[in-house]
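Problem statement: downstream parser choked on a complex file, so we are re-checking the raw output for the 1-O-phosphono-alpha-D-glucopyranose run. The parser issue turned out to be on our end (a line-ending mismatch), but while we're here, posting the original submission so the record is complete.
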Amino acid sequence: MSHPTYKAVIPAAGLGTRFLPATKAMPKEMLPVVDKPAIQYVVEEAVDAGIRDVLIIVGRNKASIGNHFDSVPELESALSTKGDHTKLGKVAHSSQLADIHLTRQGEPKGLGHAVLRAKRHVGDNAFVVMLGDDLIDERDPLLPAMLAVHERTGASVIALMEVAPENVHLYGIATVTETGDDDVVKVDGLVEKPRAEDAPSRLAIIGRYVLTPDVFEVLERTTPGKGGEIQLTDALQELAADADGPGVYGLIFRGRRYDTGDRVDYIKAIVQLAVDREDLGPDLRTWIKELASGL
Ligand code: G1P
């Protein structure tokens, strides 16, 4: 399926404080997950869904993100001289993936503020927002199904996943009604990072959104919410509550998702992805068994 008209927006301006000092001079989106920076998985996911135009919203230390998606002629010619075509292919791949655009967030005022920075680039079209902390396994594609729900309803669509009660305070949480389609729900309300005792459900927004362009106008007047930041969740709550609009739909994701947002989850993501790889899996599995037997 090809969606040439959709653009993807990847906010990558967070401070990454949970990974200091690794993120002192490097954005957390560039941390390697096995042997690729996290953001490359996200760009590849967009490309797999037929999206060719990717806008990355960057903060400080943006240079490495831009460089990663640029070609590096001296490295490529050195690998070519050596006849190392495997590595050459890997180096060239990231610079040929998509049309990558960068824009600055300026001040880190929250996810809603970062998304608003995409307004001029996106124009009056529906678009996709992808958060780099959430990696979706390429074997379980999510975006094509979300785009199909958007095309059917004309509404914004968020990806939802059930999380444990002790984790609801880390996510935007949705109140929903069923639609008759197992995986598709109508979103009645959203609240950003509620306390477990206040959470209306355990259905969490995972970092994939298909947004209609009217979200920009809402974001322009959204005041700081949770944590003093302009929250995308608050703008979506307004769209969900607007009886005159198409509302917001949720797609329940039942596939494999890897959270790289904190250190333990990041390590788990690397191990899970590496054990599934043909080149690394066999050795790693043997070692993990040995390690586990000694624990
Ligand atoms: C953001 C959103 C939150 C969402 C989460 C998904 O929070 O604000 O609603 O559930 O991403 O990863 P963050 O993790 O950036 O604090």
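For whoever reads this later: The chain is about 35% helix and 25% strand.
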